[in-house]
Write a structure and sequence with these properties.
single chain, alpha+beta, Arylsulfatase, C-terminal domain, four-stranded antiparallel sheet, two-stranded antiparallel sheet, 28% helix, globular
Length: 107
């Protein structure tokens, strides 16, 4: 059975970090009752094709052997892209707000 999750039922919480590699952590909230912690917005050496910024968004994962395995895997590609887009939008808004607060504090 395939479950459709309407984009308006996906909410994102962002915690900006003061780290050279991990820019922020994200929590994905579904239907106001299911929270997925551990999403990361990371600095990348490559431009993200959709967001045109040097970032990479990683689902919650754990280290095994020589790599990483995602704990959360969204099989529906369109839904996956919608989640990434919502995470990026929330990150961008939080970053813009934080930069605005810093510039006001300098005045």
């Amino acid at each position: 059975m395939k479950m459709n999750i309407p984009p308006q039922e996906i909410k994102i919480k962002i915690k900006l970090l003061d780290s050279p590699t991990i820019l922020a952590q994200a929590t994905v909230i579904l239907f106001d009752c299911w929270e997925e912690h551990g999403w990361k917005i990371l600095k990348s050496s490559k431009i993200h094709p959709d967001f045109q910024e040097e970032i990479w968004i990683q689902a919650p994962s754990y280290h095994i052997g020589g790599g990483w395995r995602e704990i959360i895997f969204i099989t529906d590609r369109d839904l996956y892209e919608a989640v990434l887009s919502k995470i990026y939008d929330a990150y961008h808004m939080a970053k813009t707000k934080a930069e605005g607060i810093k510039s006001i504090a300098k005045i």
